[in-house]
Amino acid sequence: MAPRRKAPRRRARRSFNISAIEAGTALSLSQSTGFAESLQMALDGKLSEGVNNISRKVLANKSTIIGTLGAAAVAKVASKGFASGTLAKLGPLRVKL
């Protein structure tokens, strides 16, 4: 009788993708809305001040936010034309459009 084979083990992927357009958009929006400051206020127990801070920043920077979202949409549409969306690869990190 032949010996039993061990069940194959699944390994986690050693690389992951980050969309450059989406990451840049998220960073820009978090800066425009004052997300980090508001989150810190909320963690300090000043939840209402944190929410008010975000609403003030959004109203003050609404044209910047709309511009960022518009540019991201145009970049996403334009990047679909590239055959390979990879901008850079550094070890397990792959930056894609």
Which descriptors would you attach to this protein?
4 helices; 97 residues; alpha+beta
Strand content: 5-15%
Give the strand order of the largest sheet, numbering strands 1, 2, ... along the chain. Answer: 1-3-2
Question: Which geometry do the CA atoms define?
Answer: flat
Instruction: Tally the beta strands.
Output: 3
The helix/strand class is alpha+beta
Major sheet description? 3 strands, mixed
Element pattern in H and E: EHHHHEE
Task: For the record, give the distance between the C-alpha atoms at the N and C termini, rounded to a whole number.
Answer: 54 Å
- Low-confidence sequence ranges: none
Helix content: 55-70%
Number of domains: 1
* Average pLDDT level: 82
Query: Taking Cα atoms only, what radius of gyration do you get, to the nearest Å?
Result: 21 Å
How many individual helices? 4
How is this structure best described in words?
The structure is a single chain. The protein is of the alpha+beta class and 97 residues long. The chain has one domain. Helix content is 57%, strand content 13%. A three-stranded mixed sheet has the order 1-3-2. α1 packs antiparallel against α4 (62-79) and α2 runs antiparallel to α3. The chain is flat, with a radius of gyration of 21 Å.
Short précis:
By secondary structure, the chain is an alpha+beta fold. 57% of the residues lie in helices and 13% in strands.
Please specify the SSE layout and strand pairing.
Blueprint: E1 16-19, H1 20-33, H2 35-43, H3 47-60, H4 62-79, E2 86-90, E3 93-96
Parallel strand pairs: 1-3
Antiparallel strand pairs: 2-3
Helix pairs in contact: 1-4, 2-3
